[in-house]
Amino acid sequence: MAGGAASGGSATTDTYKEARTWLLMPAWVTLSILVLAPVAMMLVYSFLTKEFRGGVIWEFSLAAYDQFFCDRGLFGDEPCTIEWTYLQIFWRSIWQAGTATLLSLAIGFPTAYFIATRPEHTRPMWVFLITIPYWVNLLIRTVSMKFLLRDQGPLNDFLINIGLIDSPIHIVNTNFAVQLGLFYSYLPFMVLPIYAAVERYNFSLSEAAADLYATKWVTLRRVLLPAVKPGVIAGCILVFVPSMGSFLAPDLLGGAKNFMIGSLIEEQFKGNAGNWPFGAAASMILMTMVLVLLLLYARQQARAEKAEG
Amino acid sequence: MATSKSAKFDIKTYGGFKAITMLCLLVLYAPLVVVTIYSFNASVSLTNWEGISLRWYVDVFTGPESEKFKIAALNSFVIAIIAATVSTMIATLAATAMIRGGKFKLRTVSFGLISLPLMVPEIVTAVATLIFFNSIGFDRGLMTIILAHTAFCIPFAYLPISARMQGVEDTYEQAALDLYATKRQAFTKILVPLMMPGIISGFILAFIVSLDDFIITNFVKGAGVETLPTAIFGSVKQGMKPNIMAISTMLLGVSVLMVTISYFVSKSDNTK
Amino acid sequence: MKTLLKSGAAALALTVAASAASAEGKLVLYHWFEYMPQEVLDKFTAETGIEVTMDTYDSNEAMLASLKAGAIGTYDLAVPGDYMVSIMAGEGLLDTIADGELKNKGNIQANWADPSFDPGRKHSIPYQWGSTSFAVNRDVYGGDIQTTDILFNPPKELSGRINMLDSQGEVLAMAALHLGIPQCSTDREQLKALNAMLVGAKQHWSSFNSDTAKEVLVSGDAAVGQIYDGFAAKAREEGANIEYAYPTQGYVAWMDNVVLLKDAPNRDSAIKFMDFLLEPENIAAVTNYAQYNAGVTGVETFLDPSLATQPEKNPHAKAGPGVFIEVCSEEVQEVYDQIWTNVKK
Description:
The structure holds 3 protein chains of 3 kinds.
Chain A: H1 2-7, H2 20-46, E1 48-50, E2 56-60, H3 63-69, E3 70-71, E4 81-82, H4 84-116, H5 123-131, H6 138-149, H7 154-161, H8 175-200, H9 204-211, H10 216-244, H11 248-252, H12 261-270, H13 276-308
Antiparallel strand pairs in A: 1-2, 3-4
Helix pairs in contact in A: 2-13, 3-13, 4-8, 4-10, 6-8, 8-10, 9-10, 10-13, 12-13
Chain B: H1 7-10, H2 17-38, H3 55-62, H4 66-100, H5 107-119, H6 122-135, H7 142-167, H8 171-178, H9 183-212, H10 215-220, H11 228-236, H12 242-268
Helix pairs in contact in B: 2-12, 3-4, 3-12, 4-7, 4-9, 4-11, 5-7, 7-9, 8-9
Chain C: H1 2-21, E1 26-32, H2 38-48, E2 51-57, H3 60-71, E3 77-78, H4 82-90, E4 124-137, H5 149-152, E5 162-164, H6 168-179, H7 188-201, E6 205-208, H8 213-219, E7 224-228, H9 229-237, E8 242-245, E9 251-260, H10 267-277, H11 280-290, H12 305-308, E10 322-324, H13 330-344
Parallel strand pairs in C: 1-2, 1-3, 5-6, 5-7, 9-10
Antiparallel strand pairs in C: 3-9, 4-7, 4-8, 4-9
Helix pairs in contact in C: 6-7, 7-13, 8-9
C-alpha cells in the first residue's frame, strides 16, 4: 500500500501548487511534534543512564546498546562476547511474524483471488464478510481464540466427541498458538491489498497465456503473480510489521514464557525490569530494522518501475 | 453465484481456492461464533452449559462492571470522534497538496512522514510517545490519548482520501477556475464535495483504528482513564468472562448493522 | 460530517459534566485485580459520599513501574506487598501519615503494628496477609506435593503443565528456598546455581501468568499453579480438585498494605478510606471476599466461620518456614534481572 500510493499518481495535477505548503503544514506540524520528536527523544533516552527501578538519569551512556550486543556474563564483569539472548528474541520475532505472514499469504491469496473473481455486485459482500470480525476488539478476538483452542475448550471437545482424537490437542501456550493468533489478528491486511490488485488485473493476459497452451497453474505463476506482486508485497508488509512488535499474542496465547521483541520492550516500561534506556534502545533497533526493510522494498519497487519504463 | 461458469470464467477459476476461502471464513468466525453461543449460557462457569439466558447481557448494563464499561465506552467514543475528525481534516489538506500540488522536492519526504506511523511497529510509537510526554512533563490523561491517536490516525485517513482523489479528474475544478472561482472556492465547493466518499471512508477507518487501539492507549493513558479496549483488557487478563462474551457479541452485532447500513448507502451512491 | 461533529461535541460536554459532578469527593485507588469487593467500595461511598475510582495491576513490579513512569500524583492509595513498601519508601513515592491522623490506628494488631518494612507504620496500614506457594490438581497427581520439587523438578505427570506467577520476586524467592540458599545472596556460586536451576526448570513450565493463576487451575489448563493461598481456596470452591501445598523447604509469606502515595490528589479522602479499612467490619468483608487474613483486631466476629478451618490457611506440622521476600541491593537486583531475562528469553 505504501509503495503503491507513493508511486501512483496518474491524476496528479498542480491546481493547488501555490497553496501546497499551507495545505501540508498541519500534517507536518502534527506529525513532527507527535511522531518525529518522540522518536528523537527515544533516541536520546537510549543513550542515557538508567535509573534503578525505572526512569533515566541525564548522563550519556552506551550501557543500553552494550547490554543488547555484549554478553558480559551473569555478573557483568567479563569481557564482551556476542550476546545471543536478544538476538535470539529478535530472531524468534522474525520467525513468528514470518510464519504468520506466510500462513496469511497461503490462506489470504486464494481468498482474495476468489473474492476478486466473483461477479462484481457480490464482491463488496465478500469483502464485508472478511472485515466484519475486525470490528470486534483485537483483545476480545485474541482471547476468543484462546477460549476456542484450550485443552478443555470447544474445539477439542468437538474433535473428541466426533471421535477424531482421543486426547486434547495441546495448542495454547505453544509457538504455534502465537502464530495462529498473529495470523488471526492481521489477516484482512493481507486479503484486502491482494484483492485490490487482482481486481485491477486484466484477465485477457491470462486468456492470452491460455491460448498459448500454458496450463492454469503456469499462468497463475508466470502471468498473474508478477502482475499482482505489489499487492502481495503490500499485504506481507502490513501483516509482518505489526506482528513483529506484537506483545498481546505472545502474552495471551503463548503463555508469556518466550519473549518476543514487543514483550521485551513492554517489560522495560511496564514490568519487572524497569530499564528505560534499554527499552528505548531495543525500540530503536526494531524501528531501524523495519525501516531498512521497507526502504529496500521501496528501492526495489522504484527500480522495477524504471525497468518498465 | 459460484455456479456462473461461462467459458470466460473458467480461466479464472482455480480448484481449491473456494475451499480455502471457506476455510478462511471458518477460521475468522469460529472463535466469535463460539463466544456468541456461550454468551447466552446461564451458567457462571464458562465451560458448563446450563441453558439459554440473557443474564450476561443484563449484567453488562447493570452488573458491577457496568459503570466502568459505560465510562470507558464514552471515553473511547469521544477520543475516536475527535481524533478521527482532526486527522481526517489534516489528511484531506495533505492529500490535496500531494495529489493536486504538482511535483515538488519535499513530496517523497512528506509522504514518508505521513506514512511513518504505519511503518513503525505500534509498540515503538507507544514507547516514543510515552517517553516524549514524560520528558516534557505533560500529565497523562484523556488529552494525551487524543493527541497520540490523532497523529496515529493520519495515515489511515490519508490512504482512502488520496486514493479517491487520484480517481477524481480535476476537470470540474478547472471548469470552476475558468469561471473565475477562487482556488479556495474550487477546493471547498467542488473538490471536497466530490471527495466526500473518500473523506467518509477515511474518517471511518481512522475512527475504527482509534476505537480499537490498545497498545498506544495503554502506554499513554493516565491514571483512572480507561478506554473500551483497556477496560476490556483489564477484564480479560484474568481469562474469558461471560460479560465480556456478551460485549463481544454486541460489538459483533453493531458492526454487522453498521456494515449493512454502509452497504446500502454505498449502493445508492451514484458517484462511484 | 456536521452531525458527527455535533454529536462529538455533545459527548465531550457530557464527559466533562460527569467528571465535574464527582470532583467534590473522589478517591483514586491503585489496587490488585480481584482483591476488593464492590460492596465495600459502595459502603464507603454511601457513608462518606466519596466516589472511588479503581485501577488494577497484577504485580508489585508493574505497579512500581507505572508509578515511576509518571502515574505518581494521580493515585491516592496503592496496595503494595511488604518488600515493595520498603522499595517505594526508598524511592520517595510514599507520603507520611502524621501521628493522630488515623483515628483507628490503634486497631492494628500488635504483631503488625511495627513491621520491619514500615517501622512505626508511617506510610501504611495492613490490608491482608497470607502465603504464596502452589496448588496441585489431585486428579492428575496423587503423590507427595509438600516439596518445591513440584515446581522446579516435577514428576512426569506434571511436567509441562505448570503455571508460574509472572512475578520475579515470588519466583526467585521460591527458587532460593528450593536450593536452600539465602535470598539476595551475593555469593557468585549460589547465584550461578540459581540461574542454572531456573533456566533448566523452564522446560517444565507451560506459562507465566499471575492474572489467570486461578482460572488455569479451575479450567484444568494447568495441573500445578504457583498461587496465593486465598486464590487457591477460591479455585477449589469453584470446582477444581486442588490441594494447596506448604513445602517442607518453606514458602513465601506476605502482607499487602494500603499505602498513602506522595502527591495524592485527594489526601483527605485517602485518610478516610484508610480509617474505613481499619474498622473490623469493613476489613472483614475484604477477608471474606479475598479469603486471606486481616491484620486488624476484632475482625473475628465478622469473619465467615468456614475461613478458619480452610486447608489453605492451616500449614501442616512439617511445613517449612514462611519467609518474606527481601529487597536486594542494586548489584544483586541486576543479576536477578539478568536471570529473569535468561528464564524468559
